[in-house]
């Protein structure tokens, strides 16, 4: 049987380079490849990469979404050791804290292009049931 693995998650954005820079700072990823409208970043060693493609007609999702709103298609869950410290760092890097926060061990943010992402800390409760933005 041939090997199959997830290699990259691709995000549309109004500016691929700007959004890639944000995630490189946030995650400690490095630049792997770039073109004028496309950027690939990833962990310094092996791991799933993130790519960003400039899409001039990009519309950011609304979260939580209401009827007729542009809904998110996916979001990143980023596990952290210290939620308060990493929340402050994410805000300093340019993330925006969402108004609605669904649980104590998770913080929902929007990246500079408006994609939701979560920082979460591993707790007993999160092991049992990990709720994510709906």
UniProtKB/TrEMBL annotation:
SUPFAM superfamilies in the record: Glyoxalase/Bleomycin resistance protein/Dihydroxybiphenyl dioxygenase (SSF54593)
PANTHER family from the UniProt entry: CONSERVED PROTEIN (PTHR35908:SF1), HYPOTHETICAL FUSION PROTEIN (PTHR35908)
A Pfam family per the record: Glyoxalase_6
Ranges of residues in domain VOC: 5-127
Transmembrane segments: none
Record-given protein name: VOC family protein
């Amino acid at each position: 049987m041939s090997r199959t693995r997830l290699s990259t998650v691709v995000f549309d954005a109004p500016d691929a380079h700007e959004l890639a820079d944000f995630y490189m700072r946030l995650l400690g990823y490095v630049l792997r490849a770039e073109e004028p409208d496309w950027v690939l970043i990833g962990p310094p060693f092996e791991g799933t990469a993130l790519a960003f493609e400039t899409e001039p007609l990009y519309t950011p999702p609304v979260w939580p979404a209401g009827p007729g709103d542009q809904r998110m298609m996916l979001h990143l869950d980023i596990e952290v050791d210290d939620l308060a410290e990493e929340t402050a760092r994410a805000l300093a890097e340019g993330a925006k804290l969402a108004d609605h926060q669904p649980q104590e061990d998770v913080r929902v943010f929007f990246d500079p292009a408006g994609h939701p992402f979560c920082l979460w800390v591993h707790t007993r409760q999160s092991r049992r049931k990990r709720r994510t933005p709906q």
